[in-house]
Structures are given as structure tokens and as C-alpha cells.
Design brief:
homodimer, 8 helices, 4-stranded parallel beta sheet, alpha/beta
Chain lengths: 199, 199
């Protein structure tokens, strides 16, 4: 229905194709954009073009970035003896927000999932093994998700890496901080109990 | 925190300025955009620039559009004797989606709100009165919101227009279709009762 005129309707249409953006949200976003000062609207458009044009994968850790090496792999301040293995660039970002982990990452770009036909060759496993040969790694932290796929991926990597003689660890399962026991599922509670630490 | 590289971080930043888009949503949107085919990403950027550049207000009804007259005012199929007065272009869109109302609109671009210093001169009241003189209007339907501001705006218009001898009506208050009485506030229930119709 074109009651706004072609350009606005087109913008609403384009925006409503974004994930989690329905018709009404798209309309709200479009109106916001239209009401921005012209240079800010143009800036947003330019960011889209530039980010899309310059995006590539880091040659070392395979996270999404815009240079040969991502800022983390390029930094000299990181501890090069520890690699945290994650499924996606978003997971890397999540751990970076903790500001505590100072090692390197390896982004698998997925998890092993026989259900949807994703095997070890479809994710960056081989690239990780090559890194383990070339770099001086002491510990590999498996930080794949706690889903069936993430667990399978972690187990697979553990079997593969342990024989090389590198420490392999897995991030802990447990009650989220601020979490109310009442609302937490039994398996998590059980894992939290198993993983209890001495005070 | 720049763990993605400049261009991606910039895009996430730009997106997170949109209303209702927080950091995580911005990240999800940015990743989606980056994974689009290049022409689709460019298309989105172009839509933003074009919509912003070409946006203006309809010279007759003051809705947001991109020509002198909006598609509704320009249409010959609409009933020119009825004007529905709404606060925003979004409200016009909401009624257009019903596909039943065939009259014209008048978008006030706001509602009278002494609290935030918006008086009759700050919205398109005078423009409406000029239309009522020039056009051959039989009925003005006040479809401002059912908020304090919307009600005040409706009352003000009613006082202004009735003396001219034009029919002035107000859209009904009542129980929303599909609404469970249990969850509906007392004032709405009372209005629904007052506005009951014979079956």
C-alpha cells in the first residue's frame, strides 16, 4: 500500500527485511531516518556501503573484520599462548565485553550439526589445527555454546587437541549471575552442583 | 570497543542510534547487512538517501510524502467531502490499512499539549480551517489518539469547526476486537457501555 509515496514506501520495505524488524518497526525506523538531519542519514547509508564492501575474515582467527588481521590478532598486548574457540564473531564480542580475557580467539564460523549437514569440514577446524602447530599455544579454551551442537563441537575438538599435548578446557555451566534458582532448568542446576568450587 | 574493525564498528554504532535498537540488536542487524549480497546492501543504503532527500509534506493534508501531493490527495477515487483528522502520518497509515475509509485526511503533525508547550499554532490547525473554507467538506472525523492530548485536541477542533456548520464526529472508544474484558481498564469499559449500539 503506497500511502507515503514511492521512496518512503521503498525504505520501509527494505527495512522490514532486516531480522526482527516487522512492518510497524520498519515504519518507525523509516520515520526516524527521515527526520534525521540529512548528513546523519547519509552517514548511516555510507556506513552500510562501507561495512559491506570492506568486510572479510581475519586470516588468523577467522572473525569478521575489515583488514587482513582483526584488531585482536594484530594487537601485541594479547597473550598469544591461549586460544578461546568460539562459534561466531558475536561470541568473541561477548567475551571481549568482559574485558578480562586477554588471549586470542579462533572463530569456527559454526558448530558441528549433523542434523543440518554441518560437519567438521564445514567449519574452521583444520585452520585451528594448523594454528596449534604454528603458534606456541599452551591452552585451548572451548567456549562453544551450551547447545547440543556446541557440546558436540567441544567434544570433537577436545578429542582432536588433547593428543597433541595441549591443555583443553571448557567454560563452566552453572547458574547465571543474578539468576533465580526457581527459574533455572534441572540440567543447569545439576551442572552447577557438579561444578561447585570450594570457598 | 573495536574488536571488529573500524567499518563494522561504525555501522553498529550508527544502527544503535535508531529508536528501539540497542547494542545487541544493532550488532545482529549489522551482521545481517554484512552477509547480504552487495547489491542488496547498497540498495538499502540508497533507499535511506533517497527517502531522506525526497521527503516533504503533502501541500494539502500535510502527511509525509515525496511529491507535492500525497498519493491519497492526488487520487481521484477518494471521497473529497470527508476529512479524517489524525495526529501523525503513522495514524493515517493505520487507517489506510483498514482499506475501508475512502475520504481524505488531515495530518496535524502533533497534538495540543500545554505540558510540553505545544499549542494550536504549533500544529496544522489553521491549515485545516483553510481547507474547510476552500473544499466542499460535509464531515470532519476527529481521529486523534485517546490520550489526554488527543482528547484535548479533538475537543478544541470540535469547538472550532461546529460553528461553521460542518458535521464533526469522533471515533469511538470501546473494547478492542479480540480484547478480553478482564484486562481492560475501567474507563474504556465505561466508554464501551456508553457507546453501546442497538443490535
Amino acid at each position: 500500500m503506497d500511502y507515503y509515496g514511492t521512496h518512503i514506501t521503498k525504505l520501509i520495505e527494505e527495512l522490514s527485511r532486516l531480522p526482527g524488524v516487522g512492518g510497524k518497526t520498519a515504519q518507525r525506523l523509516a520515520f526516524h531516518i527521515i527526520n534525521l538531519p540529512e548528513d546523519m542519514a547519509n552517514q548511516l547509508a555510507k556506513s552500510i556501503v562501507l561495512a559491506k564492501r570492506n568486510t572479510r575474515y581475519c586470516e588468523k582467527c577467522f572473525t569478521i573484520t575489515d583488514k587482513e588481521l582483526c584488531p585482536i590478532c594484530a594487537s601485541e598486548k594479547r597473550n598469544g599462548t591461549t586460544i578461546m574457540v568460539v562459534e561466531q564473531s558475536k561470541d568473541l564480542a561477548a567475551y571481549e565485553r568482559t574485558r578480562e580475557f586477554k588471549g586470542l580467539y579462533h572463530v569456527l564460523q559454526g558448530a558441528i550439526s549433523p542434523m543440518i549437514g554441518v560437519g567438521p569440514n564445514d567449519i574452521k577446524v583444520r585452520e585451528l589445527l594448523i594454528r596449534l602447530q604454528k603458534e606456541d599455544i599452551v591452552e585451548v579454551i572451548l567456549a562453544t555454546s551450551s547447545t547440543a551442537e556446541g557440546e558436540a563441537t567441544a567434544t570433537y575438538h577436545s578429542m582432536l587437541i588433547k593428543p597433541i599435548g595441549i591443555n583443553v578446557t571448557r567454560i563452566a555451566n552453572g547458574v547465571p549471575v543474578g539468576g533465580d534458582l526457581e527459574y533455572i532448568d534441572e540440567i543447569t542446576l545439576l551442572r552447577a552442583l557438579e561444578g561447585r568450587i570450594e570457598l
